[in-house]
């Protein structure tokens, strides 16, 4: 084939590089993902839910039947694998499901916090349904979660009523038979309030006769104020008190003394 034939031969058009298909797919994924993120960010999933509306209760009943009735029974009376929920109130559902403890992942001495499975609106719907079956503690009003309480009084109340299990700094602690009091440093004010109302796991119930709503707000304010304060004595070591500090000294302090003794002995020889 000479040069004239090459010039006369028409060039092929419409062929794309293999990378063009990959780029097209990636562009589509980016556009789809961005649109999904925008829609979910602006969706009413996290909007306020009317807990008393028939629609909310009806949706909560459907969610409960599909996800909870196997263990707790369609009538909330409990089953062989789950306790009765009659009288626990909306606050208990909001706490247990909102912290990821429910649905329970495995049979253990107590429910452990996991990533939350349901959207906030769905949790509120199930809470509204359970609360509609029989009276029980309700979800606390936002006015009780403003962190405007008396932190000094709250710290005193926490030391008297809670520190023996949760540690004076709210860092948690071990209990008997594989149970434990959880760390409260990352717990939201609403869930702390609900825990006091409902007494989950081994925790006693602190109703409004034991600790008033204002005193609950004082305790929450003290915990959140304490979490914001930086440790003034060096490393906080998890705020676990003398156990962690003693372990640190035993391992590193005594280890340093032994190492220095060995070094002196080797140098003398």
From TrEMBL:
<keyword id="KW-0812">Transmembrane</keyword>
<keyword id="KW-0249">Electron transport</keyword>
<keyword id="KW-0408">Iron</keyword>
<dbReference type="InterPro" id="IPR036909">
    <property type="entry name" value="Cyt_c-like_dom_sf"/>
</dbReference>
<feature type="transmembrane region" description="Helical">
    <location>
        <begin position="247"/>
        <end position="266"/>
    </location>
</feature>
<keyword id="KW-1003">Cell membrane</keyword>
<dbReference type="InterPro" id="IPR009152">
    <property type="entry name" value="bc1_cytC-su"/>
</dbReference>
<feature type="domain" description="Cytochrome c">
    <location>
        <begin position="149"/>
        <end position="227"/>
    </location>
</feature>
<dbReference type="InterPro" id="IPR050597">
    <property type="entry name" value="Cytochrome_c_Oxidase_Subunit"/>
</dbReference>
<keyword id="KW-0679">Respiratory chain</keyword>
<keyword id="KW-0349">Heme</keyword>
<keyword id="KW-0677">Repeat</keyword>
<protein>
    <recommendedName>
        <fullName>Cytochrome bc1 complex cytochrome c subunit</fullName>
        <ecNumber>7.1.1.8</ecNumber>
    </recommendedName>
</protein>
<keyword id="KW-0813">Transport</keyword>
<keyword id="KW-0472">Membrane</keyword>
<keyword id="KW-1278">Translocase</keyword>
<comment type="subunit">
    <text>The cytochrome bc1 complex is composed of a cytochrome b (QcrB), the Rieske iron-sulfur protein (QcrA) and a diheme cytochrome c (QcrC) subunit.</text>
</comment>
<dbReference type="Pfam" id="PF13442">
    <property type="entry name" value="Cytochrome_CBB3"/>
</dbReference>
<dbReference type="InterPro" id="IPR009056">
    <property type="entry name" value="Cyt_c-like_dom"/>
</dbReference>
<dbReference type="Pfam" id="PF00034">
    <property type="entry name" value="Cytochrom_C"/>
</dbReference>
<keyword id="KW-1133">Transmembrane helix</keyword>
<feature type="domain" description="Cytochrome c">
    <location>
        <begin position="55"/>
        <end position="134"/>
    </location>
</feature>
<keyword id="KW-0479">Metal-binding</keyword>
């Amino acid at each position: 084939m000479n040069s004239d034939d090459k010039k006369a031969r028409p060039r092929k058009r419409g062929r794309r590089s293999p990378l063009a298909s990959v780029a097209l797919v990636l562009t589509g994924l980016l556009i789809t993902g961005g649109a999904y993120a925008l829609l979910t960010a602006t969706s009413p999933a996290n909007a306020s839910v009317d807990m008393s509306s028939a629609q909310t209760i009806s949706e909560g009943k459907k969610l409960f039947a599909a996800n909870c009735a196997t263990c707790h029974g369609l009538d909330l009376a409990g089953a062989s694998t789950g306790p009765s929920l009659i009288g626990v109130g909306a606050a208990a559902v909001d706490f247990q499901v909102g912290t990821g403890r429910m649905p329970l992942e495995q049979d253990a001495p107590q429910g452990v916090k996991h990533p939350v499975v349901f959207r906030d609106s769905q949790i509120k719907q199930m809470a509204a349904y359970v609360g509609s079956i029989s009276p029980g503690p309700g979800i606390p009003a936002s006015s009780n979660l403003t962190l405007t309480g008396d932190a000094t009084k709250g710290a005193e109340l926490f030391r008297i009523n809670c520190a023996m299990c949760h540690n004076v700094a709210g860092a948690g602690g071990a209990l008997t038979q594989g149970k434990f009091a959880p760390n409260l440093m990352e717990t939201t004010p609403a869930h702390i309030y609900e825990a006091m109302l409902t007494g989950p796991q081994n925790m006693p119930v602190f109703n409004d006769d034991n600790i008033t709503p204002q005193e609950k707000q004082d305790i929450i304010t003290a915990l959140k104020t304490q979490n914001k304060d930086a440790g003034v004595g060096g490393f906080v070591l998890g705020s676990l008190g003398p156990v962690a500090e003693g372990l640190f000294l035993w391992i590193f302090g005594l280890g340093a003394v032994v190492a220095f003794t060995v070094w002196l002995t080797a140098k003398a020889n």
